[in-house]
Design goal:
Strand order of the largest sheet: 17-10-11-12-9-13-16-15-14-18
Order of helices and strands: EHEEEEHEHEEEHEEEEHEEEEE
Shape: globular
CATH topology of the largest domain: 2,3-Dihydroxybiphenyl 1,2-Dioxygenase, domain 1
CATH architecture of the largest domain: Roll
Strand content: 25-35%
Mean pLDDT: 97
Number of strands: 18
CATH superfamily of the largest domain: 2,3-Dihydroxybiphenyl 1,2-Dioxygenase, domain 1
Radius of gyration: 18 Å
Structural class: alpha+beta
CATH class of the largest domain: Alpha Beta
Number of domains: 2
Number of helices: 5
Low-confidence stretches: none
C-alpha cells in the first residue's frame, strides 16, 4: 500500500515565476537544483523537495509521485502491476537522481493520469517555512492531497483500490451542473497514514490535468494570512473560506499561476486506526462556507 504522496511534478512555461509565487504566497522555499534544464525544486519541509516545476510548452500537472515506504513495498508494487498486465516503465538512474529518490517507476491510470511511485529519498535537512508559518502538516502524511480528473470513473477507482491498495474514505455525490448531465462524484481515498484522504478522483476532465492540490498549515491565522497574500498577488479565489463535511478541513481555494487549483487549509481530520473506520457517503461538500466563484471564459 502507498505510504504517502511524496512529490508532484508540474510543467510551466515559466518555472521561475511559479517558484516565486510559491515563496511569496505559500511560504515554500527553493531546494537544491538537480538538473540543468531550468527545473525549480520547491521545499515544504525536511524532504529534499515536494514540488518539481519543469519548463515546458504548456502549464499543466504532469504526475504524482507516491512514496511506497520501502524498497520491498516498491518491488511488490511493480509485481502487482506486472501480474495485472499493466505496463510499468522503470525510471533511469539519472531520472531517479533528479527526483532525489533511490528508485522509481511509472504507470498510467485508466483516465490517463501519470502515476509515479518510488522508494528512498535523499537526506532530510532542516527547514523553516516562510511568512511565519510554524510548519506544514507533512511528514509521514506526505505533502498534502490532490484531486485528479477521472472521467473513466469506475475503472480509475478500481485501478487505485485493486492495484495500489488505496482504500475509500468518503464517496461524495453532488448535483449535476445542468439537466441531462451526470451527477458530480468525488471519490476520496486514503493511503497508509492518518490523513483523511491523500487522493480524490473527480468524474470530469480538467484541461490542467489536476482538479486541485492541497497544502495544510497549523493554524487558522496561517490560513487567513495566506488568503491575504493571495488577494495581494491578484490571484482569483474560486472558493471562499469554509469547512468541508467529510475531512472537516477549514480552507479556501484559488487559482495558482498556470490555472492550477490550489487549496490551503487547517484542521483536517486524521484517522489513527483505519481498521475501525467506517467509510462515509456524503451528499454535501461543506458544513459552511466555500461559496464558489468560477470565472466565466468566452
Amino acid at each position: 500500500m502507498v505510504a504517502s504522496l511524496g512529490y508532484v511534478r508540474l510543467e510551466m512555461q515559466d518555472p521561475a515565476a511559479w517558484a516565486k509565487f510559491s515563496k511569496d504566497v505559500l511560504g515554500f522555499k527553493p531546494g537544491k537544483s538537480r538538473d540543468r534544464q531550468g527545473t525549480k525544486y520547491l521545499r515544504m519541509d525536511k524532504a529534499p523537495f515536494r514540488y518539481m516545476i519543469e519548463k515546458g510548452a504548456s502549464d499543466r500537472f504532469v504526475a504524482a509521485g507516491y512514496d511506497m515506504g520501502s524498497r520491498r513495498a516498491f518491488n511488490d508494487q511493480v509485481k502487482k502491476f506486472e501480474a495485472a498486465k499493466i505496463e510499468v516503465t522503470h525510471g533511469s538512474d539519472r531520472d531517479a537522481k533528479r527526483r532525489a529518490v533511490n528508485g522509481f517507476a511509472s504507470v498510467v491510470d485508466p483516465s490517463g493520469n501519470v502515476v509515479e511511485f518510488f522508494h528512498g529519498r535523499d537526506k532530510q535537512e532542516p527547514f523553516t517555512p516562510g511568512h511565519g508559518i510554524k510548519e506544514f502538516k507533512t511528514g509521514k502524511m506526505g505533502l498534502g492531497h490532490l484531486v485528479l480528473p477521472a472521467p473513466e470513473n469506475k475503472a480509475t477507482i478500481n485501478f487505485y483500490q485493486k492495484h495500489m491498495g488505496f482504500a475509500v474514505s468518503d464517496d461524495l455525490t453532488l448535483p449535476a451542473f445542468a439537466p441531462g448531465m451526470p451527477k458530480q462524484r468525488v471519490y476520496f481515498m486514503h493511503a497508509d497514514n492518518p490523513r483523511h484522504h491523500t487522493l480524490g478522483l473527480y468524474n470530469f476532465p480538467n484541461p490542467t490535468g489536476v482538479i486541485h492540490l492541497m497544502a495544510e498549515v497549523g493554524s487558522m491565522d496561517e490560513v487567513g494570512h495566506c488568503m491575504d497574500r493571495v488577494k495581494a498577488a491578484g490571484l482569483h479565489i474560486f472558493a471562499s473560506l469554509g469547512r468541508h463535511a467529510n475531512d472537516e478541513m477549514v480552507s479556501f481555494y484559488f487559482f495558482a499561476p498556470g490555472g492550477i487549483g490550489f487549496e490551503v487549509g487547517y484542521d483536517g481530520k486524521q484517522v489513527k486506526n483505519w481498521a475501525k473506520y467506517k467509510p462515509t457517503k456524503s451528499t454535501i461538500g461543506d458544513l459552511w462556507g466555500h461559496e464558489y466563484d468560477f470565472p466565466v471564459v468566452g
